[in-house]
## 1
Amino acid sequence: VQLVESGGGLVQVGGSLRLSCEASGDIRSFNSVEWHRQAPGKQRELVATLTPVGTPKFADSVKGRFTISRDVAKNTVYLQMNSLKPEDTAVYYCHAELWLNGVDYWGKGTLVTVSS
């Protein structure tokens, strides 16, 4: 299984970006898909979690600004980021865990830079 992130880039404060995480296999085989981020000099943090049942979960720092969704036909999970702030600048990683055996996978990340 491979996870490939895309959609990062440079955006001004208050702008929006939509990140994509495309899986090489059926995305329904995952019991959870998450977006994490790591800012320079900081630890990686969990930003958003999507499971097949239940409501998505978000870090307090992004609640009300970020949404997470999936397109099963495209095997893709999206992170819609609105009202971006300089502190959202980070490399964003996709992480997923298989139903079958709990094995998890990471993408290589996509860089988001929010300029003021």
Note: The chain has a mean pLDDT of 96.
## 2
Amino acid sequence: QVQLQESGPGLVKPSQTLSLTCTVSGGFITTNYYYWSWIRQPPGKGLEWIGRVTYTGDTNYNPSLNSRSSISWDTSKNHFTLQLSSMTPEDTAVYYCAGIVTTTWYSSWGQGTQVTVSS
């Protein structure tokens, strides 16, 4: 079973770019049929899918965040990264990374990291 761990800054200033990394252990991010996603949950709201990178390196994004988000991976470090530009206080949320096996839809999640946007 894979384990995931998010890392990155807890505080970002408005207009800055957020960069978060999800390190995967217990498996490889190139393992067949795995999709690696970023999801967030603003305070008092539901989960919002941000985007994903697949085991082939393809990326897909939530249309509402597409213009500001970019997901990449480093197979040598077995991690994938989210960059979210032009941050505003509305982007304040707990950010999660998750790995999903598309053959079974079994998912593993990181513990989440709080990101606050404030000057």
Note: The mean pLDDT is 96.
## 3
Amino acid sequence: QVQLVESGGGSVRAGDSLRLACTVSGGTSIRTVMGWFRQAPGKERVFVASIRWSGIGTEYADSIKGRFTMSRDNAKNTVYLQMNSLKPDDTAVYYCALRQIGGPFDYWGQGTQVTVSS
């Protein structure tokens, strides 16, 4: 049974930083890809970033490039999303997700709220 648990959300001011964490239990291998998505109020869930469990092949959405960094700590079974220079437009529920190479993201965490005020 794969379980993903996010943490680290909160309320901050524009320009501040936050680090989200997602701890994974079960289901990881060299073929695993971890992703971060976000869903703003009234909008669809969108891709933010992804990384292979091997650490190779990090991808980012254009809207957050240069501000967000995704990383992983295999020893802790945890992936992180370091978010710097936060903007009000970054306000959303952030979800961690898992897939295997070639497959869809089919495991999801419960989400963590990030609120950025101006």
Note: The mean pLDDT is 95.
## 4
Amino acid sequence: QVQLVESGGGLVQAGGSLRLSCAASERTFSSYAMGWFRQAPGKERELAAAISGSGSSTYYADSVKGRFTISRSNAKNTVYLQMNSLKPEDTAVYFCSARPQGGTTYDYWGQGTQVTVSS
């Protein structure tokens, strides 16, 4: 069982930056691909960014490409999401999630952290 704990959310003005962190309990952290999902009120949860177990491969949704950067430290069992040039439409609850390497689904979820971007 992988336990995930997010931190770093908050209130920021449009154009500002935030850095989210997600600490994992799993000792074999590098064997999990990690994703940052977000869910805005009244909308479906969407995958914003993802990173492979080694960190060599990343994915970004078109809506965040060029503004968000996902990274990880396998030594610290932590994945990060650096969010720059934030927009009001980035307002959402952000969740980190873990997918076993070779698996097809994200099986483990954190509790979420609120990000609010004011205009």
Note: The two ends are 40 Å apart (CA to CA).
